[in-house]
# Entry
Amino acid sequence: MEATPAATPAPGPSAEAGPSPAAAPGHEPAPAPVSRHDQGPPPAPPAPPPLRRRLAAPLATMAVVAGAFAYVGAVDPNEPGHYPVCPLLRFTGIYCPGCGGLRSAHAFVHGDLGTAFGANALAVAGYLVFAVFWAVWLVRAASAKPVRITLEPVWWWGLGALLAVFTVVRNLPFGSGLTP
# Structure
């Protein structure tokens, strides 16, 4: 039997000299730069949904809100027996931030802004804020731009503080102008 010659090592650093700096852990060789021309054209962004589909959510939301306002405008909350009494007001005598909201909506629908503010000024401000946000939503949806409204925690805390202050002030003697 004939012995096969042992494989000769490839030219370069020997195994006894240790690993080469390029093969050391954490020192991976950098990939060769790839030209943009080698990759082909960039992928096209997806086509936006049709206009009808983009407008469905804001228009459906407005239909629900308009239906609710139409109902409150038709069924007078000033007449007893149509709506339940606020449980906080009934059991404690304290006006919550929402007390007078239905009377405010009823007056708002009928165009009596003075009475609407007198019933619940915060609710009227809420109606106006909702109208602005809805209009922005509708315009952005029509132009196929994403609608992302994110509020930092400081805004949520501020809203909570506003509701708390409104509730306290409307239940004090000098805040009687804010009671329904």
Observations:
- The chain has a mean pLDDT of 82.
- Residues 73 and 106 are 5 Å apart (CA to CA).
